[in-house]
Amino acid sequence: MREFHKDDLINFLPNFETFVGIDSDGCVFDTMETKQKEHFHPAIIKHWGLEAIEPQVRAAAEFTYLYSTYRGLNRFLGLCKTFELLRDWPEAADKATIPDPADLRIFCDSGQPLGNATILAEAERTGSKLLAEAHQWSVDLNEDIDKNMPAPPPFEGVEAALKRIQAHSDAIVISQTQAVALLKDWYRDNLAQYVSVIAGPELGSKIDHFTMAAVDRYKANAILMIGDAPGDLAAAQAIGCNFFPINPGHEVESWVRFMDEAYDAFLAGGFSEAYQAELIHEFKALLPGIPPWKS
Predict the structure, then answer these.
(1) Contacts of residue 104, Cβ cutoff 8 Å, sequence gap at least 6
(2) Which pTM was predicted?
(3) Which of 69, 201, 223, 257 has a 20 to 30 Å separation from 175 between CA atoms?
(4) Is the model's pLDDT at 8 over the cut of 90?
(5) Which has the closest alpha carbon to 181: 17, 11, 26?
């Protein structure tokens, strides 16, 4: 199992005129529901002793990590947002001591790669109790997922799509899933053979991944991001490239649409303005910005 480094992105050499960045969790692999509900959210409750408000913690975490405009956030950004929502929710804040996420917000907004090594370094540098706790939560979470989570299957149609992409485009994985889990998923099902680099948060943000590997090497309309979260759309918009959504809850249908029409349109010169707008409208309609307990 090969590990990847920033140099793999910085020194990326094109073989084709088109480039495809592909997200992993919830896009290629059917991981999101199980990983979040059975591992992430119980770990938040246990680690910070929030059993008294378990229903509220689960609701806030599910909204943040799965069912909103925040879907697909890096785990530390998602943890920070979950605490912010809980502290602003009287039914939760009045029943339990919810951590003040100020230190975590500063770390998340620092521009550093949001991984275990960097949060540990910041915890040691600043003496922040919360950052140290978040680091341990993340380490324990990785161990729990590695030992106890069933192997997530790729969505139907993914391998056929990857084979086709490999034949016509340069392709890399652009993800915020930590490398320990990311590499395991891609090598277990031998899908790593279809991509040149597997990049997680240790190598930077998704915009960083694109900037290092693709920007200045390909025309903007020759770059495509495939993803299932608003962060994927934001990365695509930041560099001005095409975006194809794997719609949450409609993943198999999305891959069929990719094979039937979207990839051909991309190879023919990029998505038209009208087609891109249609894809984004359908995608955004699935992910609200206001929690259900406030709407």
Answers:
(1) 76, 79, 80, 83, 130, 131, 134
(2) 0.83
(3) 257
(4) yes
(5) 26
